[in-house]
Amino acid sequence: MDIHAAAASPAVIRRSDYRVPDWLVPDVTLDFDLDPALTTVRAKLAVARNGGHDRPLRLDGDGLVPLEVKVDGRSLTQAEWHLEAGALILPLPGAAHEVETLVELAPERNSKLMGLYASGGLLCTQCEAEGFRRITFFPDRPDILSRYSVRMAADKACFPILLANGDPVEQGDGEDGRHWAIWNDPYPKPCYLFALVAGDLSCNRDRFVTMSGRDVQLGIWVKDADLPRTTHAMEALKNSMAWDERVYGREYDLNVFNIVAVADFNFGAMENKGLNIFNSRYILADPDTATDIDYDGVEGVVAHEYFHNWSGNRVTCRDWFQLSLKEGFTVFRDQNFSADMGSHAVKRIEDVRILRAGQFPEDSGPLAHPVRPESYMEISNFYTATIYNKGAELIRMMALMLGPERFHAGTDLYFDRHDGQAATCEDFVRAMEDGGNIDLTQFRLWYEQAGTPRVRALLSHDAATGRVNLVLSQIIPPTPGQPEKRPMAIPIRVALFDRESRANHGDETLMLTRSEQRFTFQNVATAPVLSINRGFSAPVIVDTNRSQADLAFLSAHDDDPFARYEAMQQLMVNVLVGQIGGQPVDESAVVDAVRQTLIDPALDSAFVAEAIRLPSEAYLGDQMPIVDPDAIHDARDALQHRIGAELEPLWRDMHARLRANSFSLSPAAKGARKLRNAALHYLVASGAADGPLTAFEQFDSADNMTERQAALGILANGESPERIAAVDIFYNRYCADALTLDKWFQTQAFALHPDTVDLVEKLGRHKDFTLNNPNRVRALYGAFSGNQWAFHHRSGKGYRLVADCILALDPINPQTAARLVPPLGRWKRFDAQRAALMQAQLQRILSQPGLSKDVMEQVRKSLD
Ligand code: 0A1
Ligand code: ZN
């Protein structure tokens, strides 16, 4: 292989290649002399040979140069070590040694935001998945668990606060205005959970007494001006701690728990032991700048990271192929927590919407992979909706099959059995089997096989015998590397409804385990209506032979809120897809169902708002063999207009009636805002002459961001003087606050407006746009690439814009650049012209010399 081919082809890491580590590292002492321009890191590792072998010690490194290497106190000469692909290789004679290294770092030049970096005057770290090797030489793999002692020294004026994992031990002043602190973490942990923060931070302090009486000091550290925006996060943290004790019997295990908010962060947040580091958008919230969705995001992410203390930290992953072990389970836990804090029905609807918007497309495209992947080139590319959200659905199915008591027996066993270990997905499934007394042999296929199963349901009724036959069949589509699939074990919750009495004949969970299976129900006098995949019991696509009348019935009478919502969505999908495909279906059923839902006094506002919302353009695209973005947009727009116009008095009345006198975060108040925004949406869609003015009034007079941003979004979709005014006012009011300015970029990039593509191009040159902040990049280009109509502009301009961004961003921040690739990879789903334009942009990216492994992997796979 010539050198170019080697450079162009990053190594593939395979699950089957896993070997136990050659050397263990029971203890680590780190000494940081911190400075943004030049930091030194001295590391002392106690290493122990693992088993009988004579292999050298290999310490991973990424961009590091050893300034000193010592073994048992003796400095080695350069002939005694060498570097191999960045790693330090040391032959060692004995069974145990102390290895010491010294390296230098330049945090202020670290734009990848992996390892030790500077953000807004702070120094902070991000080590998952492979960032620790950018800080010091170390066997950077999650199955090496070590006890850490960390000393940090820094300029006291610039960095008065010094934090690391575990508990604080000692601190003091040094010379030349410097000071130092020592932190110890008594719990052995993988290096991806290492963290430190240095900076000028203020603290929202609180405390939590655990179920065994341990007094835990809680701290949320932010810039002083942001302190008032941390109350919601603190409430969420205390609620999470109490919830994990109550529901899982899991108690916090250190004396302090700190959270730090940083402005520049590649993902949402990070569960470092005792020192969670957050993207500030998931900590800071106040009514003027955060929407209800943002508040829920803060609550959910604070909980997620906290829950990792058990599902991830106390029990960690053996290797990165097991990532869903911690992520799928922790998402499942945070979803249930959020449901308990608010509405179970609405939370389930939202979670399924997220799964369908992010994971289903992934699972049907070139980047599809199993929940437990078999191989990767760059692990950062595998922090996906499949690992997280589909992974959570797998846990949910097991919980359903076991029932609450046996499921908790399973999780207790899992935590007890594997506490302090690096475990596998298989370990989790086995704990479920042993603790819950169930055979999950076939269920394991969910971890192995990619692709969203399609379940077909055919119901027939025999009036003479009173028998109902339900034939369920399953097809799992081919995915990359997996042309053929075996039938899976799919739990499908069903109910049959009597059309006359509307009675539910009984809820049942059917286990579909074969390609095709018949289920029989007796004593059903008249043909019933089928409610299927209730609660979204399995992450599958269901095709049924239900009529629009059946769906209308369910949308009014199903007693499972998810199924009721789903019936309404399906009713709408059938109308829209029919129309786009040239086979019009009567729209009036949709209008009637919306009306019925609006006036049903038994329903709460948040549910109503979900139920009456039209499926997104992207979701409609997913229902079609070839996506036609223009036709989808036109059809959806027309239906929205009709619903708006026919029910105009209702929208007007609701919009006026749901106006609140004062701001509250109660579920009722949040539901009212959601429904009020939906009403405004339809009122404007109706074409009523006063629509834009009503939206502007809401924009202008709102005492909260939920209503203000919604009004801005509604105006941004149309053409009016109010639109221009609102965009300007918003900018002038919020341009000093980065998180809120992100909303300004995002709302415009999301706009369903024919000029969005040109506007995004302009916004990319705006003085406030920067490639150095991942939130800003996502706000503009991430939002834009999720705007199907705009991104897939027939000119191909949208593709070029995103490709330009990827190329410019890759040298700065490859992780964030790589996350912009997937929308371009969906070319097979579009017409030949668009497909060619998309492929051309992928080719253009691929031809760039020096491309990162991150972008290279995504682009190559996307071209296949
Ligand atoms: N474990 C975190 C996600 C995370 C992954 C990688 C990161 O590095 C850039 C950051 C965060 C979680 O699940 O919250
Ligand atoms: Zn996580």
The tally of helices reads 27
Portion in beta strands: 15-25%
Distance between the termini: 22 Å
Outline: globular
Task: Outline the biggest β-sheet.
Answer: 8 strands, mixed
- Average the pLDDT over all residues and give the rounded result: 98
Bin the helical content. Answer: 40-55%
What's the CATH superfamily of the domain at 19-113 and 123-198, by name?
tricorn interacting facor f3 domain
CATH class of the domain at 19-113 and 123-198: Mainly Beta
Structural class: alpha+beta
Which ions, cofactors or small ligands are bound in this entry?
O-methyl-L-tyrosine, zinc ion
Radius of gyration: 28 Å
CATH topology of the domain at 19-113 and 123-198: Immunoglobulin-like
Give the total of beta strands.
31
The assigned CATH architecture of the domain at 19-113 and 123-198 is: Sandwich
Largest sheet, spatial ordering of strands: 6-5-9-3-2-12-15-14
Uncertain parts: 1-7
Domain Peptidase M1 membrane alanine aminopeptidase: 233-443
Keywords: Aminopeptidase, Hydrolase, Metal-binding, Metalloprotease, Protease, Zinc
InterPro entries: Aminopeptidase_N-like_N (IPR045357), Aminopeptidase_N-like_N_sf (IPR042097), PepN_Ig-like_sf (IPR038438), Peptidase_M1 (IPR001930), Peptidase_M1_dom (IPR014782), Peptidase_M1_pepN (IPR012779), Peptidase_M1_pepN_C (IPR024601), Peptidase_M1_pepN_C_sf (IPR037144)
Enzyme class: hydrolase
